[in-house]
Amino acid sequence: MGNTPFIVCRCEEVTLEQIIEVIERYHCSSRETKLRTRAGMGICGGRTCRPLIDRLTGQMDAEKAAYSLPLKVQPPVRPISFGEWGRGS
Amino acid sequence: MIDRLDLIVIGAGPAGLSAAIASARCGLRVLVLDEFPRPGGRLLGQLHQEPDGFWWNGIKEAQQLVRQASENSVDIRTGVSVTALEQIGQTGWKIWTNRGPFSAKHVLIATGAAESACPLPGWTLPGVMSIGAAQVMTNVQRVRVGNRGVVVGMNVLSMAIVSELRLAGIELAAIVLPPKNPLNVRASDPGDVLRSLLRFAHLAPNALFRFGASFLGNSLMQRMALKLYPRRGIRMWNTPLQLRRSAVEIVGGSCVEGVRIADIDSEGVPIPGTERLIEADFVCIAGGLYPLAELAAVAGCPFRYAPELGGHVPAHDESMRTPLQGLYVAGNITGVESAKVAIAQGQVAGLSIAIDSGVPDSPTETELQTAMHRVKQMRRDALIQFDPDITACRNRMYGTNDAIG
Ligand SMILES: Cc1cc2nc3c(=O)[nH]c(=O)nc-3n(C[C@H](O)[C@H](O)[C@H](O)COP(=O)(O)OP(=O)(O)OC[C@H]3O[C@@H](n4cnc5c(N)ncnc54)[C@H](O)[C@@H]3O)c2cc1C
Fold first, then answer.
1. Which homologous superfamily does the CATH classification assign to the domain defined by B7-114+289-399?
2. Cis peptide before A76 (omega within 30 of 0)
3. Using CB atoms within 10 A of its CB, is residue B189 exposed (0-12), middle (13-18) or buried (19+)?
4. Same fold for the domain at B7-114+289-399 and the one at B118-286?
5. pTM strictly above 0.90
C-alpha cells in the first residue's frame, strides 16, 4: 500500500523514488540532485517541484540557504519562444 | 510615454495595484504588467462572508482598485509575462517580457504566491488540479470543474475554497489528508492538521466550531480531540472533513475516476484492510502557498528563509525597499498573508518609491510611518492568518515591536 511509483517533476518525468535514491546515494544538495536527475530542469523552471526537491534534501534550514534560494533561478522565468526572447536584447 | 516611466509594477494583484495608485497620486508615471488576462490577481477568486456579515467579493474589490488606478493615469497591461529583469547601472531597471522590453527607474515586484504541490500516486491524471485552479475556474471563469470532487489537503486555503465551491453548488464527496510520504510530512499528520484547523474554528460552520471550541488551548485535550474525532468526518458545508482518513492514490484510466482512501492511525499511517474507493471525476490538491519570488532571484536580490511566511522571501525592510537600489517588493512575495495586508503593503511601497523618486509632491516620512502602521493593524485584524507566528516573524525581520497604539 502506498508504494506505487509516482512522478514529482512533471516536466522531466522524474519519480519520487529516483530522487530519493540519488539523494541517499550521493548525500547531495538540491542543486546536485537537480543536475543528476533533471528534476527541476524542465519547461516550468521548477515552479512546481523546486520546493519539493528542497524539502527532500532538507536544505531549507541550512545556514547558507537562509540567505539565498537553494536552487538558482535562470531567466527566462516563463517559457517563451526564441523569437520573443531575442526581441529583448 | 513608455520611454519615460518612473515605475514598473510587476503583478496587478491587490499589492501591485495599490502601490501603483499610491505612487501615481504623488505624480509618478506608472506601468503595471500582469500575465493573467484580467487585473486583480488572487482577489478575483475570493468570496467569503466576514464575521460582521459583510460579503468580501474579490471581483468588486479588484474593480475598485482598477478604477482608482485608471483615474490616476496608471497604464495597466494584461497578458504580459515578465521573464527577466536586470539592473542597468545607476539609471534603473530593464524588464524583459513576452511583449518586448521595458525600462524604468524603479521596479516593484508584486507577483504574489504560488501553490505548493503535494504529489501522490495518480496526481498527473487529467481531472486533478490545484485547489486554486478550481477556485479560478469557479469564480473567475465560471466553468463547472466537475460533478463530484475530492479535496486532498486541509489548510486554511482549502477550507476557504471548499466553502466557495459549495456556494457554487459543486458536490464534494470528501476532504481527506494527503498520504504520508517524505513530501507531505506535516500535511499528513492528523494531530498537526487538527491543531491548525482549530485556529480557524471561528470561521467554520457550527459543527466544527462546537467540536473544536472545547479543545482549544490545551494540548492534552487536543490529543484527545483526535481520538474523539469521528472516523466518517465532521460535515462542513455538507462535505465530510475526514481528518482520520488519507488519500492513498488517485485512480483512473485516461482521467480521474476516483480516489482510494484509507483510515489512518494517529501518526497518519494507513491501517491495513481499511481501503475503499470514493468515486469522483475531479480532485483538488491543496498543498498551501509559497511566495513567488523567482524574479527577485533573477534580479540578484538576497533572500531570507522564514517558514512562518511560507518559505524564502526577498530581503526587504518595513518600507518595502530591498537592498538593491530601485527594487521594491510588496504583497505575498514578502510572505503569505491576506489580501487586506497586501493592499496596505502596496500603499507603503508606493509611498517609499515616491519618496525615493524625489517628486515635487513627495510624501512625508510621517505619511510613510502611518502607512506602515496600517499594515500592522491589518495584520492584527486579518480574518485569515496563514501562520500563527507571522507577527513575531515580521517583528524579528524588521526590528519592530508589537505596539500598534
Ligand atoms: C489560490 C489562492 C487563493 C487565495 N485565497 C485567498 C483568500 O480566500 N483570502 C485571502 O485573504 N487570501 C487568499 N490568498 C492569498 C492571496 O495571495 C492574497 O490575499 C493576495 O491576493 C495577495 O496579493 P498580491 O498582490 O501579493 O498577489 P496576487 O494577488 O497573487 O497577484 C500577483 C499577480 O502577479 C502576476 N504575476 C506573477 N508572476 C508574474 C510574471 N512573471 N509576469 C507577469 N505577471 C506576473 C499574477 O498573474 C498575479 O495577477 C490566496 C492565494 C492563492 C494563491
1. FAD/NAD(P)-binding domain (3.50.50.60)
2. yes
3. middle
4. yes
5. yes
Contact B367, B350 (CB under 8 A): no
pLDDT (tens digit, 9 = 90+) per residue, A31-56?
Answer: 999 999 999 999 888 989 998 999 89
Domain B118-286 has CATH 3.50.50.60: yes
Burial B8-38 (b: 16+ CB within 10 A, else e): bbbbbbbbbbbbbbbbbbbebbbbbbbbbee
Distance (Å) from the C-alpha of residue B194 to the closest C-alpha of chain A? Answer: 22
Question: Looking at ligand 1, which residue's alpha carbon is closest to its atom 10?
Answer: B338
Domain boundaries defined on chain A: 7-87
pLDDT digits (tens, 9 = 90+) for B154-211: 998 998 899 999 999 999 999 999 999 999 988 999 988 988 887 776 666 665 655 6
B225-279 pLDDT per residue, tens: 788 888 888 888 889 999 999 999 999 999 999 999 999 999 999 999 999 999 9
**How many whole angstroms from B340 Cα to the centroid of ligand 1?**
12
- Which residue ranges have their beta carbon within 6 Å of ligand 1? A 77-78; B 10-16, 33-36, 41-43, 45-46, 81-82, 110-113, 115, 132, 135, 157, 160, 289, 292, 295, 331-332, 338-339, 342, 384
